[in-house]
Amino acid sequence: MTMVSTNLSTNGFSPSPNQTLEGLDAWASRLRCVLDDRAALLAELQAASEQQDEIIESRDAARLMALMADRQVVVERFVSGQPELLDLTTSLEERLAQLPPVAADEIRHRVRSLSEGLSRITDRDELSQVELRRAREEARAELNRATTGAGARAAYGARVHGERGARASGHDLGRSVFADHKG
Predict the structure, then answer these.
(1) 8 in helix, strand or coil?
(2) What's the CA gap between 32 and 24, in Å, rounded?
(3) Contact predicate 121/45, CB 8 Å
(4) Rounded Cα–Cα distance for residues 108 and 32 (Å)
(5) In angstroms, rounded to a whole number, what is the distance separating the alpha carbons of residues 167 and 102?
(6) This model's pTM is above 0.90
(7) Three-state DSSP class for residue 175
(8) What is the DSSP letter of 128?
(9) How far is CA 23 from CA 19, 107, 110, 122, in A?
(10) What is the pLDDT along the chain (183 residues), one digit of tens a residue?
């Protein structure tokens, strides 16, 4: 049997340079638990990512902000578990080589699934960012049109009311504009 030397110090796993089969089984068991936890968190992030797309499409800023806050909590939980996962995956292939092939393949599959799930979420988030930028530009353009329209209405209203007021008082607007210019 090949002995593995690692530097784990998480959750009571501090294998000696001469790791026993029992230590290897404990490591594999803990790694499976951590991978399961990571997979559950990824499932939450995936669901939030799908909701995010729907909310972006509906242009509901309040719901989007609430979802992003909830999602951030999940991201923080995911990130907080990364040090343990990194410790457990140190010398991963060396350790997997010591496990029965079925057990090693099962762990490899879990690691690969986790990596692929993370990639899917990242890809979806990148697309969501593009959609958010597009929505923000549309909102900015709409705001500019509204502001321009409001400004035009205000200017028109002031002019109409100004002409009416000037005519009612007997003033000629053409002369009052240039009244201070002699010539």
Answers:
(1) coil
(2) 12
(3) yes
(4) 10
(5) 96
(6) no
(7) helix
(8) H
(9) 6, 16, 20, 35
(10) 333 333 333 444 434 334 677 889 999 999 999 999 999 999 999 999 889 988 888 888 899 999 999 999 999 999 999 999 999 999 999 999 999 999 999 999 999 999 999 999 999 888 888 888 887 787 787 777 777 766 666 666 666 555 555 555 555 555 444 445 554
